[in-house]
Amino acid sequence: MAELTRLEYKLNDEAIVKITDFMETWLTDHKIQSKNRTVFMLESMLLDIEAHSTQELDVTLRIVRKLGKRSIKITYGGDAYNPSQNEEGGPLTRFFLEEMGFTPTWSYENKTNELVLEIPANRLKEETILLISFLAAMLILELKELKYVSSAGLRELLELQQIMNNQGEMVIKNPSQAIMDVLEVSGFSMFMNIESDQA
C-alpha cells in the first residue's frame, strides 16, 4: 500500500476547512470527477466525529493507493465511534451513504478509530445534476435537444428520480418523440412526470 499524502490536525472547525480545501485541490489535480461528493462526504463525517467528541481529537488523514484504488484513511482517538453507522450521524452523512453509494469501512483497535473512504472511480454521471438534485425541491430536465438516450442514461434518470422522490419533484420537459418512445418502452413514462409545452 502506497501512502500518497498525509495530514495531521487537532479536529476542530478550522481543521475541517483546511482538510476539505486540501482534498478538493488534490482531487481536482488528479482529475477525479467525483470530487464534490467525496469532499462533501468527508466533511460530513468529520463534522459528525467532531460533534460526537467532547474534546479536540488528534486526527490523521492519509490518501493511500492499493491495487490501483485510492482511498482516504482517517484515524482518530477517543471512544469507538463510527459516523457511518451511528444514528447520531448527521442527515448529510446519511444522504451520502444511502443515495450516493458510499460504503466506508470502520475499525477500532488500541483506542484508535480508523475510517476508510474509497475514492469513487470516475463515472459518466454529471455530478452537477446530482448536487442540484440534493439541494433542490424541484428538478426540471429540459430534453428538447436530446436525440438519444442510452441504457446508462436511463439508469441515471432512475437514480435522479429516486433521489427526488425523497425530497421533492422531478419533471422531464419536452422530450422528443424518439426519447418519449424509449421512456414508454422502458416503462419510465408510467412513474415519471413528463410535460410538454406543445398543446
Point out poorly predicted stretches: none
In CATH, the architecture of the largest domain is: 2-Layer Sandwich
Q: How many angstroms does the end-to-end distance come to?
A: 61 Å
Spatial arrangement of strands, main beta sheet? 1-2-3-5-4
**Beta-strand segment tally:** 8
What's the CATH topology name of the largest domain? Heat Shock Protein 90
The helix content is 25-40%
**CATH superfamily heading of the largest domain:** Histidine kinase-like ATPase, C-terminal domain
Order of helices and strands: EHHEEHEEHEHEHE
Q: Which class of the largest domain in CATH terms? A: Alpha Beta
Mean pLDDT: 82
Structure description:
The protein is an alpha/beta fold and 199 residues long. It has 2 domains: 2-118, Heat Shock Protein 90 (2-Layer Sandwich); 127-195, 2-Layer Sandwich (Transcription Regulator spoIIAA). Helices cover 39% and strands 26% of the residues. It is built from 6 helices and 8 strands. It has a 5-stranded antiparallel sheet with strand order 1-2-3-5-4, with no helix packed on it. Strands 6-7-8 form a 3-stranded parallel sheet. α5 (151-165) links the parallel β6 and β7 (169-173). α1 (13-29) packs antiparallel against α2 (35-52) and α2 (35-52) crosses α3. The protein is elongated.
Distinctive features:
Transcription Regulator spoIIAA; 2 domains; five-stranded antiparallel β-sheet; alpha/beta; Heat Shock Protein 90; 8 strands; three-stranded parallel β-sheet; 199 residues
Layout of SSEs?
Elements: E1 2-10, H1 13-29, H2 35-52, E2 58-66, E3 69-76, H3 91-99, E4 105-109, E5 112-118, H4 127-135, E6 138-142, H5 151-165, E7 169-173, H6 177-186, E8 193-195
Parallel strand pairs: 6-7, 7-8
Antiparallel strand pairs: 1-2, 2-3, 3-5, 4-5
